[in-house]
Structures are given as C-alpha cells and as structure tokens.
Amino acid sequence: MTWKETATSNHGGVLGFIVHIVIRFFQFVLGLTVIGLYGSDLNAARIAHKYADGREVYAVVVGTLSALTALVFMVPFIKTHRLFPWDIIMFFLWVVVFGIFGHMYIKANAAGDAGITRMKNAVWVDLANMLLWLISSAFGAFMFFKNRGHMSLHTGRAKV
Questions:
Q1: What are the helix (H) ranges across the chain?
Q2: Fewest CB atoms within 10 A around its CB: which of 70, 80, 84, 111?
Q3: pLDDT value at position 79?
C-alpha cells in the first residue's frame, strides 16, 4: 500500500483524513494554549514563593496530555480509531477542567481585572478543547465499529 492509501484507509477516505488532521491540529494548538494560559499563573506563584494551585496544575497536565496525544495521533499510519477510548478519556478530562474553571470564572465580574478576563477566556478555550475531543472520540468510535469488518468485538476472529 502507498502512503496515501494507508493514511486514507485508516480515517475514512481523503475527506476523513483531512478532517482528522485538522481536528488533531486544533487539539494540539489549543492544548499548548491551555499550557500557556494556566502555566503563567503557576510561574507567577513559583516566583512569589507560593504554592501552586492544584486546579491549575491539573489543567496544565491535561493540556500537556492533549497536545502530546494530538501530536502522536496526527501520524497517518496510526489507526487512531482503535484508540478511541483514549479520546473518550481525554474528553472527560476536559469536562473536568471546564467544570472547575467554568464554575470559578464564567459568572465572575472582571471589572477591569486583566487576570480575571484572561481566565474567562481560558474557560472558553477549555470548552473548545472539550468539544474537539468529543468530536474526535465520536468519529473514532464510528470508524472503529464501521471498520471492524464484521468480526467479533473481543477477539476479532469470529465473523458476525
């Protein structure tokens, strides 16, 4: 098989491959964005010799996992539809990040406070990440069950 055939057969044709790469690219970029947004607060706490907020550490860890996963899953030869449970886990990790910071900042009154405004914007980045991981997990699950080839779910040896 050629490179193009291998890449497109794993993702549902040329259009599916393009959509897959675009979604993974945005997951990568937004993961890096979250690392920057929450990491700046962690750095400020480090400079001030204060304890790091566990919620922000969690957000940076999830952003890092997100960026690394998206980068690895962009490789065309990896059959990412077989790894859709990891996409589901990443979706739930982002649900938690959005829930934590959404509860803290969505209703907060910024009133000229640049830090609050930045965190309110970070919440929407969290939401975008959450939705991208939902889309990629749904697409991965769809492709997994479509490409199963009518084989049994557990061993893959019996024809159904």
A1: 3-9, 13-47, 54-73, 84-105, 114-146
A2: 111
A3: 76
